[in-house]
Amino acid sequence: MVEKMEEYSKKVIENFMSPKNMGEIENADGVGKVGNPKCGDIMWIYIKVSKNDKGEEIIEDIKFKTLGCAAAIATSSMVTELAKGKTLTQAFNITRGDVANSLDGLPPIKMHCSNLAADGLQEAINDYYKKQGREILKIIHNDNCSCCNKEKNCNKKGGNI
Amino acid sequence: MNSIYLDNAATTKMHSLVKAAMIEAEEKYFGNSSSLHGVGRAAKTELDKARENISKKVSNKNHKLIFTSGGTESNNFAIKGLAEANKNKKHIITTKIEHDCVLNTTKFLEKSGYSVTYLDVDNNGFVNLEQLEKSITKDTLLVSVIHGNNEIGTVQDLREIGKIVHEKNSLFHTDACQSFTKVPIDLEKDNIDLLTINAHKIYGPKGVGGLFIKEGIKLEPLLHGGGHEYKLRSGTVNVPGIIGFSKATEIIGEKEIEHMTTLRNQLVNGLKDVEDSWLNGASLDCGKRLCNNANISFMYAEGEAILLYLDALGISVSTGSACSSNTLEPSHVLKAIGLKQEQTHGTVRFSVGIDNTKEEIKYTIDSVKDTIEKLRKMCPYKY
């Protein structure tokens, strides 16, 4: 029907077949919603925040729900793995590149559209700050979404998107 | 592990009878059919027999059948070859649901000054005949309409289309790669001037196809060389492949069509109770759908994900999802039948074959239901 794209790494397939942290968190402290139904990939990231011994805010629990392709599901799973237990600052700085690298790479065409998980996490952290009445962190990088032709706010350290 | 192949519209597994015929041909008829010696003449004799055997499937008259490398070449040859040989007319009509090898050929011609009309189809994928009639002008060189659609299985009424085309003094080409031997075709009654067929969709070898050219129609060859195939397609003729093609035209008969129809209906009916899903293309009982095609859209699950989960369960299918394409564009056929972009993402094409069994379809139904349930559990909304 259509020309096949490049193959997925073993790690992508593993994370896609058995995703980690799939589900919702009831009364989550923050929810990040990214994606566009037209593009076909939608991700919601839920976080529960607590404090560590040093009094820093950390991601105590994180879950995701994703409608999308194998890459969308695998990156969702991976970002939850990378973020769990991290301080909010560390978690906010997880980039799309970090997610892709942890999956041993993604096919180039999937780097943009389906690699939204890091953005979702940032949105979730900002949602938490908003709810707390605190200043949100700035997402600077503008990225053009090729499938919906919409400018959207993306991760400032977008990595190789 | 299971291996249930439900992607027979992509290609088929070569039939054992075809394989046997080709192995015999490689032994006995390996000669160059252009050579004058006995070995060459033997190959030529078999080539002629194969040509005749294939030809009688669509006509009892003696039209030219040119062997090519497959459907893509035949479609390119029909359209570009006709344009090149008839430069007085600069308008071509085709549809929005053609295979890419037709659409990209007409787009190519647009770059060199041709105007092309892309006909709409209705929600079931049938060409708008009124629009066709209105679109044909004195400048219309060719109308090219796919017979059985490769994605949604809708089978066009060639006779009616051909009649309109001929009444308006244009020429009619149809791409019958998916329908050949599954749906009767008659070059005379169906008013066809150029007919594309191929072997690998009907249990024959890959890399072998053909183009029927009705008497009196001039085409310029795409390949120039030693003047093979009535000086229309140069290159040493693939005699063993063509012998395989000829044998392949005998594989699908009434019994096989009935078998595939039964399995296709079993699959579609078995998946009917999946919420928020629907069959794309012509209805099962209208008699205008390829016997092996079931194209189903599932909301709240994405096609590539469905495909890969099914693949892990040993089931091979295709998807029209944007996520599985290199352009991230959803299938043009699904768009043409009026699906919104968000409705195209979870579309799966199942194409059954003569070797599939009821048990396999039963397993597939269960696997698809499990897969959809699993994916919908991951979906942020509704499920």
Question: What would you note in describing this structure?
Answer:
The complex is a heterodimer of chains A (161) and B (383). By secondary structure, chain A is α+β, with helices and mostly antiparallel strands. Chain A has a single domain (10-153), classed as Sufe protein. Chain: A (Alpha-Beta Complex), CATH 3.90.1010. Helices cover 33% and strands 23% of the residues of chain A. Chain A has a 3-stranded antiparallel sheet with strand order 1-2-3. In chain A, a hairpin with a 4-residue loop joins strand 1 (30-36) and strand 2. In chain A, helix 1 crosses helix 2 (70-83). Chain A starts with 9 loop residues before the first helix and ends in an 8-residue tail after the last strand. Chain B is an alpha/beta fold and 383 residues long. Chain B folds into 2 domains: 16-248, Type I PLP-dependent aspartate aminotransferase-like (Major domain) (Aspartate Aminotransferase, domain 2); 253-378, Alpha-Beta Complex (Aspartate Aminotransferase, domain 1), CATH 3.90.1150. In chain B, the strands form 3 sheets. Chain B has a 7-stranded mixed sheet with strand order 2-8-7-6-5-3-4, with helices on both faces. In chain B, helix 4 links the parallel strand 3 and strand 4. In chain B, helix 2 packs parallel to helix 8 and helix 10 (303-312) crosses helix 13 (358-378). Chain B starts with a strand and ends in a 5-residue tail after the last helix.
